[in-house]
Each structure stands twice: as structure tokens, then as C-alpha cells.
Design goal:
The protein has three helices and no strands. The chain has 75 residues and is mostly helical. Helix 1 crosses helix 2. The chain is elongated and about 60 Å long.
Length: 75
């Protein structure tokens, strides 16, 4: 019996230098290269989210700015 995967597959074309780095990191960490690629994508998404949230915070952090409670900020 074959179980369908719940994960989405994405085809990505890599430049030779990115491919080399990906395979080297996967080998170093003793994981399949697809696993390493997924891990790196997760990390990149977290970094991107941090950049966006930092921009929002900087925009709100002004002299004389209106106070927003923690609860209201995360609504």
C-alpha cells in the first residue's frame, strides 16, 4: 500500500554553486539534500518575517506615538 505524502513538492533550478553548497551542507549534517533545502527555506522564511516585523515596529516606534497594548498589537 502506498501512502500519499502530505508535503508539497517544489521543483527548483539551482545554479551550480548553490547546488554544490546545498549538497555540502547536507553531507556535513548527514541529511538528504531535500531535507537540508527545506530546512534552509524555513530559516529564510523566518528571517524574512523578522525583517517585515522589524519594519512594522520601526514605523510604529516614533516620538509621541500612540501606545498600543500587547493584546491590541496582536489582534
Amino acid at each position: 500500500m502506498h501512502m500519499a505524502t502530505t508535503k508539497t513538492r517544489v521543483n527548483v533550478t539551482l545554479s551550480p554553486d548553490v547546488e554544490h553548497a546545498l549538497f555540502a551542507l547536507a553531507k556535513r549534517d548527514q541529511v538528504p539534500h531535500a531535507t537540508k533545502a527545506a530546512e534552509l527555506l524555513r530559516t529564510a522564511l523566518e528571517i524574512d518575517e523578522d525583517i517585515v516585523l522589524d519594519a512594522v515596529a520601526r514605523e510604529r516606534d516614533t516620538r509621541g506615538g500612540k501606545y498600543i497594548s500587547h493584546h491590541a498589537a496582536w489582534k
